[in-house]
């Protein structure tokens, strides 16, 4: 009889422990929609208390890219799709103290993210000797997707950056 009580007690403790672990265990947060992407970003160390504004979400095969502002600073987060169709984050970047940022999301794709403080209306840069030009809407939070020129070796060399304001005046230049 004593042994039977001990077995029930052990079984009861085991069931309670399993239930506690199941309901309170760490649960994966996926980037399956805008609200869950905000939760993912706020769950990452260093981003817990940041105000997040999702600007745009785009899918490429099994990759999801979300452009956002974190405390009004440009950022980008990448997710990969698992076998169940859920998006798991793999990379995040926010450029502090900037109004205009770009992120290379694949060998030929770039994303430009601006906030409402951005004054850049156009950018020119030489990529592997070819002039690349992109226009932007100043003083507005925007996302611009761009495809880089084709290259034989998938290597890109960027030179001679020029940034122009809405009147066409150079405001920054890097050679």
Automatic annotation (TrEMBL):
Keywords recorded for this protein, A-Z: Membrane, Transmembrane, Transmembrane helix
TM ranges: 7-25
Superkingdom of the organism of origin: Bacteria
Name of protein: Uncharacterized protein
Taxonomic classification: Bacteria, Bacillati, Bacillota, Bacilli, Bacillales
